[in-house]
Amino acid sequence: MRHTRKSPAAALAVLAALAVGGVLSPPAAADTPIPLARTGQVTDQVDALQDRAGEVRLALDRLYDQHRVQLFTVYVNGFSGASPQDWADATAERNGLGRKDVLLAVATRDRQYAVSADQQSGLSQQQIDEVNDRAIEPALRQNDWAGAAVGAANGYDAVLGGGPVAAPVITPGAADPGGAHSRSTGSVWIPVVALGAALLLGIWAYRRRAAQQRPVRTSAGQGAEQWRARPKQPVPVTPLPELDAQARELLVATDDAVRTSEEDVGFAAAQFGDDAARPFGEAVEYAKDELTAAFRLRQKLDDAYPEDDETRRQMLGEILSRCTQANRRLDAESEAFDRLRAMEANAPQVLARAEEAAVALPARIDAAAAALGPLAERYADSALEPVAGHPDEARDRLGFARTSLEQAQEAIGTDHGRAAVFVRAAEGALDQAAVLADSVIRREQELRAADTKLAEALAEAEADLAEARAVLGGPGAGGAVGAGGAGGAGDAGGLAHAELRGRVARVESVLAAVRGELAQGRPDPIAALRRVEEADAALDGALAGAREEEAGQRRTAGLLEQALLAARSEVAAARDTVTTHRGAIGSRARTRLTEAERRLHRAEALAADDPRQALEHAREADGLAREAQAYAQDDVSGFGGRRGRGGAGGGMGGMAGVGGAVLGGILLGDLLGGGRSRGAGMGGYGGYSGYGSGRGGGAGPGSFGGGGTRGRMGGGGRF
Fold this sequence. Notes:
By secondary structure, the protein is mainly α. 64% of the residues lie in helices and 4% in strands. Strands 1-2-3-4-5 form a 5-stranded mixed sheet. Strand 1, helix 2 (53-67) and strand 2 form a beta-alpha-beta unit. The two termini are 56 Å apart.
């Protein structure tokens, strides 16, 4: 196919036609998310403010001077068929508004509006609603377009300063400022001016292009070809340390989104059945697969084998890409999920179920607390460390859930939106309380199973020791060791026996130490089982050549059972810790946990067909899970050091258990002061832009969705 080339005259004609068509056509009834004005905080496409633009700017400047919050105002005809909130959020994201930026969007012809605020703007959902109800909507209802912006600025100034929101003084204006009746006669000249500008622009562009194509004369007589071949300017790239930090942050945010979405799918399945929740479960599984692949790359970057800079950059880019895909998949289903649960409409029913769960939980928590006492007397502190304090934390989450349910009950009948927020927070807290309580009971079962398995492991290790001693003292053993002068075979035999003696000594030492701990009382049977299994497995490897194949496979299968018990226990403990403390836990613990889970699944899949390979995966899973636990404890300790600084904020301040709710990632936002942001913006990471800013969330709970929809907050509607 041949490529045709338009003449400059044709291009100019097209440009002029487009200009004329654009300016002569009537104003559009709806506007897609738009770029904001390049100067100032007011974008008025319909001349809604008229001669009051200066009054609005003064109010916006006063708000910024007092609280460093920028209020951007947009006036358009309509929202392109989108919901007001979606349109406002999309416009905020398109223009890169930051955490201290608030957007007020008004569709004058469609008579709709919305507010979009970042979760760290300092405004809570309750405060936004108060300003909407008292300062913005009353002005909009009477077509006081400027008064709505002034009222919003003054209202935010008031709530951020701890004062009441004053009702605005209303100055009614034109009902449809963007309509044809409000256009001045001077607008007749707009098409003429626009056409003239288009013609001048076309002439300038044509001359500039012709000048660029003209041969460039140099002292060497070289022309345009050399000019065109000159190297392009290098495109700036994100420095590796910054790219690495972005990847870590996005991994954490995506992991939180996946965990919250998975919990929400569970709530939906309980409410509507598995069939209704299945599409959303599939979205979560897709996101989990992408996230697992991203975490695996992060693990490779963190291992002991450094990559060169180019390889590292490629791996970080893939992490960002996979996390972005995971978030997009969740975001694509978030609207349908919201329709399914319809939390506002179904708030009374969901509240009733949550209250039933809250009534049943205390017995489970009490059972966990009662189990810890005898366990502490029987086992070492290290054996109970993964669940120490879990009953107290479960009570803390339950306290927060109860307070949330009380708040929801008060809002039922008057404000179902507010009730839905508190019910969702209660659901998350109740779920985590159950996990914390059940983790103690599970640990008790694991320790008792480890007791039984340890006794078996000690007996099997003794049998292996006897077999190894027989090999060392059996016929030909001495000859093999002393046959060094007989050639390479004698050397190999001597080295093999030396290695076997070392492994025998290792097993003997481990068995003596473990038996000593058992005799003293309060052992850690899971740790002891791990040590016996590792020492005995090394001995088993040295004896493999002297055994029949069937006997060797049986012995490996026995060792695999021991390794799987330890691995499952440690992976479950690490998973519970990350799940119930994810508001504090960074990428290192999450990376190790995800890789440990992958290794454990692989070990279980290979157990029947390749027990020796499965054994290696089980050991890796065990070690990675323990690393995850250690990193998680460091993160929680650091987070705990910040507790007590700053207020709970966000309209939930003073509620029981707010600190635990933030620690558990139930509430989004840095509510305790100095903590790590949750649901932060994801746009523009290393070129992987197009990701939602995570606007909203404040003191509200997370919800199903990715980074663009997990923390939805704002307000608006028709007026």
